[in-house]
Design goal:
The protein is an alpha/beta fold and about 475 residues long. It has helices at about 5-25, 40-45, 55-65, 90-100, 110-130, 145-160, 165, 185-195, 215-225, 250-260, 295-300, 315-320, 350-385, 415-430, 455-480, and strands spanning about 135-140, 175-180, 200-205, 205, 210, 230-235, 260-265, 290-295, 305-310, 390-395, 400-405, 435-440, 440-450. Strand 6 (about 230-235), helix 10 and strand 7 (about 260-265) form a beta-alpha-beta unit.
């Protein structure tokens, strides 16, 4: 399957050229999204004759012609969807290098440099957000959803009964976990997958999108009295909907009082804890028994990479280590720490390289600069909505997510309806991209400003597009 060295170099150059073109032509191109249909895409990429080989150079040319056209180019500052980071360029190179090495990070001897670099990056990330503990340890995983699952598995293992691994949750007192009603859906999924049941994820009401700690305490007390076994509280350091940070210090205190596991979902907001001015907001994050952070969100690293970090790495080992015969062997040496013992995953790619290259290349300083930029962009958007009567801001952006409404001017058409229509029509327009959400049961517009490439001109352009699309949405309702 290998090519000659000359041919391989030619193909690498061809790929590099394609990527270079995307970054020189498409970052602020005419459209970042082409709203094509599943069938159109299937037609372009289907294999016609599966036994016929294709020259690899033609394969890359095919991608050059079609791939970006049918993608949603999120490196662009005109992309505001979900909580997607725009990815940095050194990470692109890391992905190339990683695949060429093809390390399998299951045991130390299968990927020596990889294993040690992963541990170094976990230390760097922890230090960056102020999670400093002597016995700390962690692993890189694919994303925040898996990291939430793993964190809750650790909580369940440490706080559940000793027989849990063999007998499952049967026979345990009903375990309960507490989080705000703004929790990410992956936490509900994890409760279901782990057999704890989503009914035992107790969603506490919020004040200003942050957990109401008085209600939380009341509920925990009630549950103890009625025979449940509260096992942990999950604080959110940057909610998905509005980027709000729970009162982590208070949550840490409540956990101590009731002897509960304190977990912090810092998948999105965690890196902002590195910003001096925001330290107060994140106070308490260091007291967590376990946390998750996604470098693929606010450390600008390309997908996929998140991490699970625990105060005492033995908790991870206790939850995930299982060594069958075929994974024995090799030199036994205490220094050689096999990452498979800390994770669900056995075979694993060299995710650490792109995180390591990101921090090594840009340093904490540039990453922090990107984070500050994104917060100021969200706040600039907030200011626009405050001063423009076409809009209503929903909240002041604490971090880099901002929700607002386009005000309906059509009698009988609610704001909710018009904002829902705008999120549909924005796809058809394609010049910018964002995803909507619901706040207090009403459709609103939501922008995620995580992208170090964005500036005020981009934000002005966004609002120009929204107003134009807003007018079209209004005429949709008036013309019927
Ligand atoms: C607070 C929070 N936790 C977890 C996740 C899930 O992360 P991922 O999309 O990497 O699975 C998200 C995603 O946006 C999030 O905002």
């Amino acid at each position: 399957m290998d090519f000659s060295n000359k041919k391989f170099r030619k193909l690498l150059n061809q790929s590099y050229e394609m990527i270079e073109e995307w970054y020189s032509n498409n970052l602020r191109g005419e459209k970042i999204y082409n709203n094509t249909t599943p069938n159109e895409i299937k037609k372009v990429f289907k294999l016609i004759n599966k036994n016929k080989k294709t020259d690899p150079s033609d394969v890359i040319s095919h991608l050059k012609k079609n791939l970006i056209k049918h993608s949603n180019f999120n490196p662009s500052p005109n992309y505001y969807g979900y909580i997607t980071g725009g990815g940095n360029q050194i990470g692109i190179l890391a992905e190339f290098i990683k695949s060429a090495l093809n390390q399998n990070n299951l045991k130390w001897h299968s990927a020596p440099a990889n294993t040690e670099i992963e541990k170094i990056t976990i230390d760097w990330i922890s230090e960056f957000i102020g999670y400093n503990h002597k016995k700390r340890g962690g692993v890189l995983v694919s994303g925040g959803s898996i990291a939430n699952l793993m964190n809750i598995a650790v909580m369940r293992k440490i706080k559940g009964e000793g027989f849990l691994s063999k007998e499952g949750v049967y026979g345990n007192q009903k375990m309960r976990v507490y989080v705000s009603e703004e929790a990410h859906s992956s936490i509900d999924k994890a409760m279901d997958i782990l057999g704890l049941g989503s009914d035992n994820l107790i969603k506490i009401k919020t004040k200003n999108f942050k957990i109401d700690s008085n209600l939380l305490k009341k509920k925990i007390n009630e549950d103890f009295k009625t025979g449940y076994k509260p096992i942990g509280i999950i604080g959110i350091a940057g909610t998905t909907n509005t980027g709000s940070v729970d009162p982590l210090k208070i949550l840490a205190k409540i956990c101590k009082e009731f002897d509960l596991w304190f977990m912090v979902d810092a998948a999105y907001g965690g890196p902002a804890a590195s910003i001096k001015k925001l330290k107060k907001m994140f106070e308490g994050i260091g007291s967590a028994d376990s946390i998750l952070v996604n470098p693929h969100k606010w450390m600008f690293v390309p997908f996929e990479v998140a991490c699970v970090i625990v105060k005492d790495k033995e908790a991870l080992k206790k939850t995930f280590s299982l060594i069958p015969e075929y994974l024995l062997g090799g030199i036994e040496n205490e220094d050689r720490d096999d990452l498979m013992n800390y994770s669900i995953q056995l075979s694993k790619d060299f995710k650490a390289l792109k995180v390591w290259m990101t921090i090594k290349t840009y340093g904490y300083k540039k990453i922090k600069k990107g984070i500050k930029n994104d917060i100021s962009m969200a706040r600039y958007a907030y200011k626009i909505t405050e001063n423009d009567p076409s809009f209503i801001p929903i909240h002041f952006p604490e971090l880099s997510i901002f929700c607002f409404k386009y005000k309906s001017k059509i009698k009988g058409v609610s704001d909710s309806l018009i904002n829902k229509k705008i999120t549909e029509m924005i796809e058809d327009d394609g010049r910018v991209f964002f995803s909507g959400t619901k706040i207090n049961n009403e459709h609103v517009l939501r922008i995620n400003c995580v992208n170090h490439r964005r500036n005020k001109h981009d934000i002005k352009f966004l609002f120009k597009v929204i107003k134009e699309v807003g007018l079209k949405a209004e005429s949709f309702f008036t013309k019927g």
